[in-house]
Amino acid sequence: MDKGLHTLTLEQQLTQLDEGAIRAVELTEATLEAIEATDATVNAYITLDREGALAQAAAADEARERGDHGALAGVPIAVKDIILTRGLKTTAASRILADFVPPFDAAVVERLRDAGAVIVGKTNCDEFAMGSSNENSAFGPVQNPAAPGRAPGGSSGGSAAAVAADLCAAALGTDTGGSIRQPAALTGTVGLKPTYGRVSRFGVVAFASSLDQVGPMGKTTWDVARVLETIAGHDPRDSTSAARPVGGYCAAARRGPEAVAGMRLGVPREYMGSEGGIQPAVKEAVHGAIDALRDAGAEIVEVSLPHTEYAIATYYLIATAEASSNLARYDGMRYGHRTEEAADLAEVYARSRGEGFGAEVKRRIMLGTYALSAGYYDAYYLKAQKARTLIRRDFEAAFADVDALVTPTSPTTAFRLGERVDDPLQMYLADVFTISCNLAGIPGLSLPCGQDEDGAPIGLQLLGPWFAEERLCTIGGAWEALRDG
Ligand code: GLN
Fold first, then answer.
1. CATH of 5-251, one of 1.10.3660.10, 3.30.450.20, 3.40.640.10, 3.90.1300.10
2. Helices (H), ranges, 245-358
3. Catalytic-residue membership of 89
4. 367 CA to middle of ligand 1, Å?
5. Pocket test for ligand 1, best of 130, 201, 363, 426 (most atoms within 8 A of CB)
6. pLDDT, tens digit, for every residue of 148-179?
């Protein structure tokens, strides 16, 4: 039986559109029908834009007929609900923004629209992207389509689940400490966190500004490469945006297994050596991938990232400090939820925030405010900034010796929904292999790499030097070819 157009990869959808075998409206309808049939259980979307999507699809069909269309014309894409979409509700999965309709598009959304992409809706996530399981959403948890009853990971859990359940061709996520790569790993999809500055953050609800980065999630390296080529590039409205040319990521993804011959790939001792944390099936699968890359001609060497043990503590000081400052703007006055009853201005602030923010967001605002307060700043925030420099130098030293690093994405496969909600520290450990990458600002790619004994997906992480996204796509494409034989 025909499985339906919505189940094709982005690349396959583009090919069929290019050949005129299908129309964008037909593809969009198939996708919307799939969402309407299954999303009541998956809960990947917070907002669906049926009308807007069909209008964009019709416009894409017209552009294709004229022979003048963008690189993603007619392809259904989902956008994490922390990225602003003009005229389309953007909630950050928070009660405080539950009715917020942005007056402008984020830079990445502008670029998607210019390329002709069809934005089908806004995906569920942890509130303000704070979490590793998507259970911190004010709009309910998301089911992992690849492992029923288990969390899809977070914070971009809705984007990952939408891709895994064939409810879009690709999706945008954001990654502050692992939120693209970890949910990709847990749902058996591909996620790419670009170099800090590669993609504009203009119009992205800020969590921790020095760590946040938007990136693509999809079914294959080529698919995420295609989206990255569209959204990457300099934007004067983001002062941290890099003025460097965008690479040929799709071409890189097609170089095949031969392209890794002669590459030096590093395996960090601190990641693979730790006996305690890694699930045996994850370790085995990652070693299997490393062996396959070695057989294809890559040289595998052990490297050391000696400050790895400080990464989580460093991250949770810096990220909470920045969050406490960024989230000060939600005061019930300018936009977002305002309390019904308050005696004076101070009470408007206190009640609006008290009613609007969820427990994890409040915890982080308190931690961050404490870490920045007079008398504690030197002991916590300043110390964390110094540790961050040491972590970045670990990577500089490693990349002086190797072309890329190969690690697991997550120490375990998907955990059960509800299993870690009462234990924030346990939840924070889910990002032990992804967080250093954000602290250093380097790019990372997570790819499916087998399953555990229960059939839950395992993720392989590739980390590269600053702006080496092309190289990551080359290795990612090579690994997929090796894996799929
Ligand atoms: N899980 C991490 C956190 O809770 C990372 C989140 C993210 O990357 N947005 O902060």
1. 3.90.1300.10
2. 249-253, 269-272, 280-295, 311-326, 345-356
3. no
4. 15
5. 130
6. 999 999 999 999 999 999 999 999 999 999 99
